[in-house]
Amino acid sequence: MDDMLKEFVVEALDLATNVEEHLLSLERNPGDMNTLNAVFRSFHTIKGGAGFMNLTAMVSACHLTENLFDALRTGQVAVTPEAIEAALEASGFVADQLTALNNGVAPDQLSTMPKSLEAMLTDAIESKGVSKKSAASVTAAPKASPVATAVAAPAPAAAQNQDGNIDWEAYYRAVTPAGTLPEAVVETYEAPQPANIREENEAVKSSLSNADIKQNAPAKEESIRIDAVKLNVLLEVAGESVQAANQAAVLLEKLGQFKFDGQAAPLMSALTETLTRASRYSTELQRATLATRMQPVGRLFQKFPRLVRELARDLGKEVDLNITGAETEVDRVVVDSLYDPLVHMLRNALDHGIETSEERLISNKSPRSTISLKAWQEASSVMIEVSDDGKGMDAQRLRDKAISKGLINSHDARTDDEAFQLVFLPGFSTKEVASSVSGRGVGMDVVKTAVERHRGAIRIASELGKGTTFLIRLPIELSIVPTMVVRTDGASLALPMATVQRVVELPETFESVGGQPVLRDLGRPLPVKSLGKTLGYSPSSERVGIVIAAPNPYILSVDSVDGTADLVIKPLTCISTPGITGTARSAEGELVLVISLSFLIDGCKVRELMTS
């Protein structure tokens, strides 16, 4: 893909996404003229660029949709569900074409506009009260103007050189309205033009990138687009520089224990100052690089209103999707990887959790249900919550279903919280018959796997008859994690600070409840679990406890605490070790194993389940 086409695709994809959001807003507020005009302008701009790039199918779809919205905003056509549906289909077709281009499909290999889409748009324009005269004028307008013809078709013959290449200067003059250029060509455009044609001219001109036309030079850009791979390399280099600076600082501290006389003393002083400055700059470089990867989750959330709308319509349910916290920023990799998990969760909420309007009325609920999608920052984590006001989850039914499928035995999942976690088991489903939406036993296990791949954790809270809430906790920054470094059986291990509440001293003997050692912390009895024993290390004398913040809090016993550190995490790619999510290097250069966040929140049960 050449640079000009790539730039068009990126900008048009942003416009197409915003169009979909505007259309769903317009469906709720049909009289919103600002939204009507915004959609009209977006299709104008996409159409202009598509005509410039000779993307005829996209031009045709945008042109018909433009005509529809011209009629909508002038009152010739009412804003009906049929009109919105036609516009959504057109927006989807345009987005599909742009995505195909973005994935490397050649422009001449793109599909043509479906006849069904053309019929939908034509019906929306003509069959909703538009007079024949109005329809004729809308249809004839492009033919009456050479500008519209230039937008909807390839470059005119006059704008092509003898060798077949496009003469950009001639093309520019062909689409420039009256009075813009001093040459005689102005006489060709003496007749006044309709407002929509003038706006179309502006859309086409904005797509041109002719460096020779100084009077139309673009404004200074506030941002640039950089390949994500380059950013990843930069982040890795920045992280390694911080790690090297930390190790150099430790070495310098050890050198400071020796006495330096003569010329060595000022050299050591200068070395200390230089290293301090280098360490500060490397840390700033790392933070600045991390900031370039941060993106608001709203970029992800804005894809879901249409998904929920269409799925609710297919299921015959009335559902509103409320989105809050879209401005919350998180690592770009997290944003990109959360789409499929959130789709699975929303589909399950709609199919399993939300009742029909009739069922809700019987339960004295509003016939229209609500699904909430929230995001917020909490310490060094980003929290994403998907909740509904549906029928909730029956813990006992979940247990019975898992036992009948042979996924657990009768002694497992005794608490409701453990029962809710059963939905993440591969092959688990409460549906007797699979549908096109859910019921095949895949989906929620994919959610848990995707979340844990990025060192996150997911929990479920539900109340029968009230609704269900899924809560995802993810690190804001994937490559650097604030940790507490502990030691057990001589091994150095790092616990994510997101789960650490405080450090306590452990006695030599404990109270016992059901054979489990228990220690009272702030008046509450908490079970004590050995980190070394859980991970398979040799037994040792563990006299330090870490109070872990989890749905069921507990104390993790270790040999000692070495302190806290922001570690650059390297994920495990070749092997999979229960409880371990990656490795890092300490300031002294020692290898540190990083404990998984979900492993700690689940109560260190991974190994127990595997060996049982």
Automatic annotation (TrEMBL):
Keyword terms: Kinase, Phosphoprotein, Transferase, Two-component regulatory system
Range of residues in the leader sequence: none
Keyword Kinase on entry: yes
Superkingdom of the organism of origin: Bacteria
Catalytic activity, EC: 2.7.13.3
Pfam family, one: HATPase_c
SMART domains: CheW, HATPase_c, HPT
PROSITE patterns to which the protein is assigned, alphabetical: HIS_KIN, HPT
Modified residues (Phosphohistidine): 44
GO MF terms held by the record: phosphorelay sensor kinase activity
GO biological process: chemotaxis
Catalytic reaction annotation: ATP + protein L-histidine = ADP + protein N-phospho-L-histidine
Listed GO CC annotations: cytoplasm
Residue stretches making up the Histidine kinase domain: 268-478
Domain HPt intervals: 1-101
Function statement: Involved in the transmission of sensory signals from the chemoreceptors to the flagellar motors. CheA is autophosphorylated; it can transfer its phosphate group to either CheB or CheY.
Protein name: Chemotaxis protein CheA
